[in-house]
Backbone:
């Protein structure tokens, strides 16, 4: 499994320290959620928080402990079936839309499973021979990045479930973060020419970020910040959701079929939106979030601009130019379909199913959101979702030809 | 609201004693279910156990306390919306297929709500004036019978949810009840002629059992016991699920669309079925359960018999003839559509939505099941479900023309 | 096949004369429809006019000629598959929702098929021995009644297809029939007691009208005419489609899901409706047509009345009392589910699938409509459709308890 | 409307000659189809042949005659509604899935409409002033290319309809084309580097082929011919449709949901497939056709190869290297999502809806098929369909990294 880079300073203790930190963060995210909260699944695309906690443990068990630890004794053999997500190579699994039916195992049982796996991983890392270590280290690193992805998904998914409950509970503390002061949006120019994009170096990256390769870019400009809620409201007020000429055909069909009139969690009637901190007043200076690719593209069309390609985004992000809100605010829809890079090869074995088999029918998002774990983002990161997805923390940055 | 009979010995304390007993039984049924278990909804037709516990309390609050108790202070005003089932007269409500999303209020909160309502009902009953009492008493009696219906539904619904979980948990203790010795099935003859069916007397009955009225019956015979699992297995072995000539047209369509090969919880490959006591070996001498009307009718056709009409069933059940398993084993599908009785009038007010508005597209079941609360059954009882329903405790008794 | 009565004056020539008349009427109904018109299927429940013409010929071929005429040579063996409707006993068949795909065989081919069958039936009837004749005669009579049913369906189905075409073509001549003078609606009283309903005598009837049997009726009253469009418009104007308390639960769900605001072919915005004679002004004095059972029942509820049971309808229709519009105006929804009569036995063989297997989930309509072929109606006739069906010529007559 | 190039030799008569030829070809394609055949729509994605004939005329009427010809008198104003395909800018339209309901206007009427439009276009072209001519000429050229696209669609769509008819009629003469001798498949190498793709020059091209732009390619190889049926049969025999590791995730889901076991029109049980020439024996040496993108990608995976990108395909096709079957055999799925080219601008006005609004969720196919009109293909042509589409004449050519 050569494409997986060894972690920085590959000492076993360093990795165990990082392992402990990531695993603890997952638990802390769910700490204020009750057992009931953690069991719910509000739509087939979302998963229960308990399932996220179990599946991220399953990952280490299925891909490291079961294959590399001689005599490994599973916490419960049936979990191998229950908490497989989509790995065909690892056999049948509990159906995805029915994850919310798993009232058993209980949350306590899942937390015990997590603890069991944690002990087993620690024991394994400290005791395995060097040959096993060379195989295991990149898999554990992959597992930690995998868990960080699920940390964000845990928040997006419970937010969706809570949004459908008339009690409108807050996922996190009810204190909303401080206001964003919006400065006038400026377009920053970037030269065209031959550029390189994709992951480089020994640090961890997912296989879909490789290989690094050359692309030819035309000169272009990117907005120095994300579109704000106030700007998007102008689009709405200008009839944005009623003007087919602004929309891609599939998007327009969806607008009509679903009756979209605003971003997913907006309530136009009282000027609020639903957030991780519960219902909050919509502020014009906030960055826009929870729009689909269709809405992002329609807004850009209305604004006389367009969405950036992923290559433009990455070239700009690594250029040193002072673009704001690249990371930590909202994922940014690009105008790039999620296609394989030239020369792309998925990882060997079951982990090869991680990214490659989803490379059709999705759009690339770049950057990261306020729900992305710190340290998980990077300029070459390729997030991807179907163009209709709105429950992610997804916004947009405008682009223009020069 | 004259059609509601006053309870036996209409003293207030007698009713309170009965109230306490019924309410306690609901709690006891759910006592071994975790908060997670009580939150799950496995299909739109089923409801979470927590919802059943809350809705049965809502019934007393919405129909008695809010209307008759001056100054009644609700436990939480929002519950009036959350736990309305289908009463259009009482305003909008949380959507039925989304009951499983209600992780909040928590189970503890719902139990506190139950306690709040119990105290309020007790206070009201002891303190109200006679005029209010005359209105309230039949409503409370209706509420208790309503709660008893939900006691059975709570079991059918959680059984369905557990059946979809690979861990196959047991709802009740894992000890299966003792075996049934099956005696040879005999048909008992009944004379035809003019008979009366429907509820009579001052005891409680639902409005759909009234008015008592005359029907003309041809001579007929009923089996003295229910069809057993062994008998049904012969039907399966004889190609019952592959022979369209045995089926009603809609049933045959469903057999093919859903791939039915056996009753809902049977597993032919290992000779087991899933029950309230977990997975159990299928015994030939057990009464058949969890079949749809379509399957019941196809079996009867195969057996050279037919299903009884509801009038035949009721006339026989009140005849004094020694029919077994009338009550307490499995609900018995009849060949009668759930139509209104001649002269039927729904109750006045919101409780008029209880039965009448469902009188189309359903079939009548008679008797009661092993999951029906003791004391809740009677010969005039009209249970009803769509012909495709299999998750109820439903079996069949054969009938023949004479 | 004893239940099929021999036709009146069972001479072979008499039957052939009738055969020729019925067959010619089918052709005449379709005479003004182009080959394209006759090929279209506007929904799964409807069939193309060409298919109706072919299937009614298939009936004689499949059930008479193939089984009773030695050496019968089919027009085209493949038609046996293409034009079977739902007879499981006669093997697989072209899928019902795809009947509109049958551009081949052409209309000319189907008309040649009809002619081929007509010649073969005539030859058979004149030449068969007495034993065959006794078997064939009731089957041919059944086939003619079957064809008469399809004559009405041909009209209902093409009307539905044309209603979806912005050109709004007229099925029949564009001259609307003369106006109906509406007299004040009066309720006629009928005694209760023991009555007999169901078919009696040697004339033809479908198996579902038998056996004749006794029923007990309470005293009741029936309106002396059907509900008019003007009366129904008052229901609409009074918010009939917005008041859940008037509706059966399934009906209310459908009203909301489908956005019903008026009968199927009404256009409230310009006061017209679409008819066999094209778009026509809605006249208050016309009998109401194209309502579902749900609408009929809601209207009756609003009017402080109810729908009659089928036994009430039949007893009244045979009582000699001067009820108007019993036949020839619009089918009349009853409050009776389509259940088997006591002692009902379907015909033996494939024709046993004609009625019995549909006896669940449907409601009985009585009388006949302006599209029913003359001579086809009778008081014991049981028409049946699902409660949601609106494309039939279905109206209603009010009833009341006395 | 500057992006539309003026046609070669822009004389009016030259264009009229070409106009007459293209229009005549449409009629000739449908000449052997009956009026019934031309009315049928077998799925929402397909359209009736009559509709294709009408819509291609509507295009000239709506975009040229109505806007540029003073006093133009429409053949029938209602056709403007009936035969609009998807142009939101031109108002509401008959719903796409209901095109098969249009038995009226009749085929004769549509042919008269075509003739009316032809006369009007001819009159307009000969009589308009130069200013109008400059606007009209590119629109007419677009209309002719549009009609050529519909010529192919007419064949794909009627083939699909006929495939669902047990009579299995032949669209074209029942004589299958001569056999293809398959030579061993060879991979031809192509250098990487900076290349230009996209339309260049004054000849007609669709807007989605522009602007011409630079792309960077890695060295690669392309198969010198398309995959054959015999080669694909090896994939099937090797369990291709049962091995999830070969499939993209969405493709595998579809394989299971739809029960795919072979290309759309193959019948494995008797070794035939359904073609424009009716049912024919499958020959190993034929080029594969009627596979989805998912099947193409799975086959490539199985074969240890991949699909080419559209840039690779175009660069190779214009390189002078002797690749066979580039055009005229089967459209070739590429690994490129249908994204806009850098700097892409849709045409102004209603024709801007032609391509741009479909640029999401589809994959690019290159080349042309045996059903593409001669003269319509070119190396920069970007055909596009959803990855699940199988009813087009779509095959594949393998590619490899070097």
Residues:
């Amino acid at each position: 499994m050569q494409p997986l880079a060894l972690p920085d300073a590959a000492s076993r203790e360093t990795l165990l320290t990082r392992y402990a930190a990531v695993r603890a963060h997952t638990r802390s995210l769910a700490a204020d959620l009750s057992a009931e909260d953690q069991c719910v699944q509000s739509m087939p695309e979302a998963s229960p928080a308990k399932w996220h906690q179990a599946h991220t443990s399953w990952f280490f068990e299925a891909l490291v402990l079961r294959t590399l630890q001689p005599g490994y004794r599973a916490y419960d053999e049936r979990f191998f079936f229950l908490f497989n997500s989509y790995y065909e190579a690892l056999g049948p699994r509990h159906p995805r839309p029915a994850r919310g039916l798993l009232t058993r195992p209980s949350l306590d049982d899942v937390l015990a499973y997590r603890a069991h796996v944690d002990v087993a991983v620690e024991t394994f890392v400290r005791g395995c021979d060097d040959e096993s270590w060379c195989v295991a280290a990149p898999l554990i690193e992959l597992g930690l990045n995998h868990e960080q992805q699920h940390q964000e998904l845990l928040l997006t998914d419970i937010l969706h479930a809570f949004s459908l409950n008339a009690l409108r509970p807050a996922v996190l503390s009810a204190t909303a973060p401080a206001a964003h002061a919006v400065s006038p949006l400026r377009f920053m120019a970037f030269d065209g020419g031959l550029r390189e994009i994709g992951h480089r170096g020994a640090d961890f990256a997912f296989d879909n970020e490789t290989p690094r390769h050359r692309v030819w870019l035309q000169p272009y400009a990117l907005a120095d910040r994300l579109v704000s809620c106030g700007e998007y409201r102008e689009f709405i007020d200008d009839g944005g959701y009623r003007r087919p000429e602004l929309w891609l055909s599939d998007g327009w069909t969806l607008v009509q079929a679903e009756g979209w009139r605003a971003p997913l969690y907006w309530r136009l009637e009282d000027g609020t939106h639903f957030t991780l901190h519960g219902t909050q007043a919509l502020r014009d200076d906030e960055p826009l979030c929870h729009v689909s690719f269709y809405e992002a593209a329609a807004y850009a069309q209305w604004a006389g601009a367009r969405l950036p390609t992923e290559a433009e985004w990455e070239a700009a992000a690594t250029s040193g130019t002072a673009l704001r809100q690249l990371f930590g605010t909202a994922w940014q829809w690009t105008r790039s379909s999620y296609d394989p890079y030239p020369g792309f090869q998925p990882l060997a074995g079951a982990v090869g199913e991680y990214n490659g088999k989803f490379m059709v029918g999705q759009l690339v998002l770049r950057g990261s959101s306020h729900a992305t774990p710190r340290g998980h983002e990077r300029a070459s990161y390729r997030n991807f979702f179907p163009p209709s997805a709105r429950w992610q923390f997804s916004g947009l940055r405008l682009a223009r030809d020069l």
Summary: The mean pLDDT of chain C is 95. The longest strand of chain C covers residues 331-337.
